[in-house]
Design goal:
By secondary structure, this protein is α/β, with parallel strands linked by helices. It has a single domain, classed as Alpha-Beta Barrel (TIM Barrel). It is built from 14 helices and eight strands. The chain has helices at residues 19-22, 34-40, 45-54, 76-93, 109-121, 144-153, 166-177, 189-204, 206-209, 224-235, 245-252, 263-273, 289-298, 303-318, and strands at residues 10-16, 58-63, 98-100, 127-130, 157-160, 215-217, 253-256, 278-279. The strands form two sheets. The chain has a five-stranded parallel beta sheet with strand order 4-5-6-7-8. The chain has a three-stranded parallel beta sheet with strand order 1-2-3. Strand 4 (127-130), helix 6 (144-153) and strand 5 form a beta-alpha-beta unit. The structure holds manganese (II) ion. Residues 13, 15, 160, 218, 258, 283 line the site of manganese (II) ion (MN).
């Protein structure tokens, strides 16, 4: 059993799969091994039991990758709405244990912005987007209606990894993917994709247009807190357009602990971004709850800072 911290525990990157949406997944994204599959479809006995065993009071639920980011434009808006309505019903059955991030039909950016607003009225805490949207990075100007609406509603957008572009998989990883299939995924491929998106978002100028836009990154910031000094420094060299990378990264981004339970990495995030920008997450069911909670017991922080990570920052950012 775990020592219960002196505050509730909210975990904010906890996944599920929707029966209808999951049927659209193909190739390496379709299906999951038995136990993971069962957990992704469970909102009762298994999920709640494992939350209780680890002392997790609330999960903010989100669909697993690639969620709605690969749906064609003709079906994306209606299917995303059905997915979100079913998730809203799940949360409504257990509102003290669950909250939710919406899935957005990025294939139709205006509809995605409208869906963010519609789901906000249902009590959703923001939205989660996954990797490339039908092969395109989400910093493209055509997606900016989503960020305009997110700023207006004061809701964060969680940028979650998904499989890299097929050309990247082929050129960067194919020769190692047979022996180490995770190389294209959580080991490295996801990180590269998501960190690239985050850097592109800053360079795009979207935070100049929407200065109150809030973006969440998982996995303790997808390496960027470790690199923010170098990225900022090199972007200040002659020949670059003027951009305050560090200012934007440390003022508009939040990071979660999903699947990266490392004291040195956490302390790096706190040193660069401040403890108010770090939120607890597990990445269930791809990562189990006990190691996350056990780790939080051992992090070298005072109780007040631990309580911010486990509860207070999520309460403030997501208005829980
Ligand atoms: Mn995840």
């Amino acid at each position: 059993m775990f020592r219960k911290p002196h505050c509730p525990v909210i975990a904010i990157e906890e996944h599920y799969w929707d029966d209808e949406l999951e049927k659209t997944f193909v190739g390496g994204e379709a299906g999951r091994p038995g136990e993971q599959f069962d957990r992704l479809h469970d909102f009762g006995p298994l999920r709640i039991k494992e939350m209780d065993e680890a002392g997790i009071d609330m999960q903010v639920l989100s669909h697993g990758a690639p969620s709605t980011q690969k749906l064609p434009a003709d079906i994306a808006p209606a299917l995303s709405a059905r997915v979100n309505d079913r998730l809203a019903a799940t949360v409504a059955k257990n509102p003290t244990r669950f909250a939710a991030f919406a899935a957005l039909p990025t294939a139709v950016p205006e509809a995605a912005a409208d869906e963010l607003e519609r789901t906000a009225k249902l009590g959703f805490k923001g939205a989660m987007l996954h990797g490339l949207a039908n092969g395109e990075f989400l910093d493209d100007k055509k997606f900016w209606p989503i960020y305009a609406r997110a700023e207006k509603l004061d809701l964060p957008i969680y940028m979650h990894p998904s499989l890299p572009h097929a050309d990247v998989i082929k050129t960067y990883y194919a020769d190692y993917a047979k022996d180490f299939p995770m190389i294209t995924r959580a080991t490295w491929g996801y990180t590269v994709e998501t960190a690239t998106l985050a850097i592109r978002l800053v360079l795009s100028g979207v935070f100049e247009k929407y200065p109150k836009l809030k973006v969440i990154l998982g996995h303790l910031g997808e390496t960027l807190p470790f690199l923010v000094w170098r990225v900022d420094h090199t972007l200040a060299r002659p020949g670059q357009k003027s951009i305050g990378f560090r200012d934007v990264f440390c003022n508009n981004f939040y990071v979660t602990t999903s699947g990266n339970f490392s004291n040195p990495a956490l302390l790096c995030c706190i040193m660069e971004m401040g403890v108010d920008r770090i939120l607890f997450a597990v990445d269930w069911p791809f990562v189990m709850n006990p190691p996350a909670i056990k780790w939080m017991e051992t992090v070298p922080l005072c109780d007040e800072d631990k309580a911010k990570i486990l509860f207070g920052n999520a309460k403030r950012l997501l208005r829980i």
